Amino acid sequence: MERNLKNVLVISFGFLFLFTAYGGLQSLQSSLNSEEGLGVASLSVLYAALILSSMFLPPILIKELGCKWTIAISMCCYIAFSLGNFYASWYTLIPTSVILGLGGAPLWSAKCTYLTIAGTSYAEKAGKNAKDIINQYFGVFFLIFQSSGIWGNLVSSLIFSQSSSKVEISEEDLACCGAYNCLADTTNTTDSAKPSHSLIYTLLGVYSASGVLAVLLIIIFLDQIKSDQAETEKEKLEIPSFWSTFLATFQHLKDKRQCLLIPLTMYSGFEQGFLSGDYTKAYVTCALGIQYIGYLMICFAAVNSLCSLLFGKISQFTGRKLLFALATVTNTTCIIALLLWKPHPKQLAVFFVFPALWGLSDAVWQTQTNGLYGILFEKHKEAAFANYRLWESLGFVIAFGYSTKLQVYVKLYILLSVLVLSMVTYGAVECLEAKSSPGTPTATKKENGGPLTQETHI
């Protein structure tokens, strides 16, 4: 096997094992650690730390440690979060959430840098186009990585389904599920249906072992980039310093189009936060039990991955406007339906419809918003995608931050309002583009920057 391809596979499977653990654990936080909103509070803190981390840590760590050891050390930050869940409290989860958030940005930046250097190196030796090879490497990476959402949630559902104490949820408790949930009663229902400590510890043990396996894979099998090669590539990659990144990020806000895209970018964080923080707790755990969360999130991940691939291909024929319209109609329909629907165990299929449709919409928000940033700000991609990470992460922080303070129907109205605002401001961006470059086709193609920005999922 060619050496660079071997390194790509090592990184890909390392991320697969790591995010099999983290992805499954994130989906369970609002239900597993529901006391006083600890789970969603930890996620809010996590994304706040990620914002700070993305501003200054990546260039410093990559320069001092190199890509390999930055990846390995950052992965340890994720393991810390798994360990913090063994004894979940404000004194364990909040600090480990900060640690994970600080490690998130360096992990993804080092991965992007490594794959770019590996692709460039191979292209020079083989006499091929570097951009083509880099795109191939990222394609291999995301093909393997995206399946982590399936495996992590499958593990949690299989383990929790072993529970011997199946709790029958009364009609009175079911009345507290859904958009107009009774906050106190829902918490009690969640607690009564909570798996035994032995099952929780088994799950956390599997997740922690998966994280350790990821670190060992990187340390043992990933080749360190030679210092002279890395130095040469650093000049080509123009890895920015803290202050240059910080200033460029906020100077980019002088661009009117960037300001108009803020609601759309934040909406991506809001909608993902609602699905993993509110839908899983107020609908799924409340009416079905925590053991079903994994299966439903597998449905979301599978549809999301397939539609991401599909929309990335067909956007050049349909144009981005049609896809944004599809996602808007789909999400609006889901929000209205969630406001009206009273979840009941007898309607099992309906529980799967919502994550499936949500996955379809999220695929559009991810692929087309990333592509839009790449096309509109082609000459300032670093600053543009730094803004993307900043505003989407802020959306997560806010969504998880108010999760325990507001009832679900209020959060759905907020989600709908942000969606409407997003489409108004997005429409303004399209109008500005049409005026500035009349006759220019608006169909988007996936840019090289597109796949890199998947790091916003941590």
Describe the structure.
- With 458 residues, the chain is mostly helical.
- Helix content is 80%, strand content 0%.
- The protein has 17 helices and no strands.
- It has helices at 3-32, 38-84, 90-126, 130-145, 148-160, 171-174, 183-192, 197-221, 227-237, 242-251, 256-287, 293-318, 320-340, 348-376, 381-401, 408-436, 449-452.
- Residues 184-192 and 440-456 have low confidence and may be disordered.
Which stretches of 5+ consecutive residues score pLDDT under 50?
184-192, 440-456
Categorize the overall geometry: globular
How much helicity do the residues have?
A: over 70%
Cα distance spanning the termini: 30 Å
Let me know the average pLDDT.
Answer: 83
Cα-atom Rg, whole angstroms? 22 Å
SSE string: HHHHHHHHHHHHHHHHH
**Tally the helices: what do you get?**
17
Summarize the biggest pleated sheet: none
Summarize the structure in short:
The protein is an all-alpha fold. It is built from 17 helices and no strands.
Main attributes?
458 residues; globular; disordered C terminus; mainly alpha; 17 helices
Architecture blueprint of SSEs:
Layout: H1 3-32, H2 38-84, H3 90-126, H4 130-145, H5 148-160, H6 171-174, H7 183-192, H8 197-221, H9 227-237, H10 242-251, H11 256-287, H12 293-318, H13 320-340, H14 348-376, H15 381-401, H16 408-436, H17 449-452
